[in-house]
């Protein structure tokens, strides 16, 4: 089922984002590694947003108006 796969993927993304935040918060990663982690987090965040938008469209939930 596609929805289950999306949910699993979303949960995996969120778990990885939490790991990245913890790594960056320590301040121990070299600059190059920190930049790579930031780029990974940005990409994962975009994918998570896509999954949320898809779920909203399947549920018929209207998107909030942007100011």
In short:
This protein has 67 residues and is mainly alpha-helical.
Question: Can you describe what's shown?
Answer:
This protein has 67 residues and is mostly helical. Helix content is 81%, strand content 0%. It has helices spanning 2-26, 31-59. Helix 1 runs antiparallel to helix 2 (31-59). The longest helix has 29 residues, at 31-59. Keywords: Coiled coil, Cytoplasm, Exonuclease, Hydrolase, Nuclease. This is Exodeoxyribonuclease VII small subunit. Residues 7-61 form a coiled coil. Its EC number is 3.1.11.6.
Q: Bin the helical content.
A: over 70%
Q: H/E series, N to C?
A: HH
Unreliable segments of 5+ consecutive residues: none
> What is the count of helical runs?
2
Distance between the termini: 36 Å
Shape: elongated
Oligomer, anyone? single chain
Strand content: under 5%
**What is the residue-mean pLDDT, rounded to a whole number?**
89
Question: Count of DSSP E strands?
Answer: 0
What's the gyration radius in Å?
A: 15 Å
Main beta sheet strand tally, sense and closure: none
Structural class by secondary-structure content: mainly alpha
Tally of individual domains: 1
List the helices and strands and how they pair.
Layout: H1 2-26, H2 31-59
Helix pairs in contact: 1-2
Keywords:
67 residues; elongated; cytoplasm; hydrolase
């Amino acid at each position: 089922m596609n929805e289950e796969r999306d949910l699993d993927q979303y949960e995996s993304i969120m778990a990885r984002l939490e790991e990245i935040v913890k790594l960056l918060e320590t301040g121990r990663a070299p600059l190059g590694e920190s930049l790579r982690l930031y780029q990974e987090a940005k990409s994962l965040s975009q994918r998570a947003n896509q999954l949320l938008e898809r779920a909203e469209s399947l549920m018929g939930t209207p998107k909030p108006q942007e100011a």
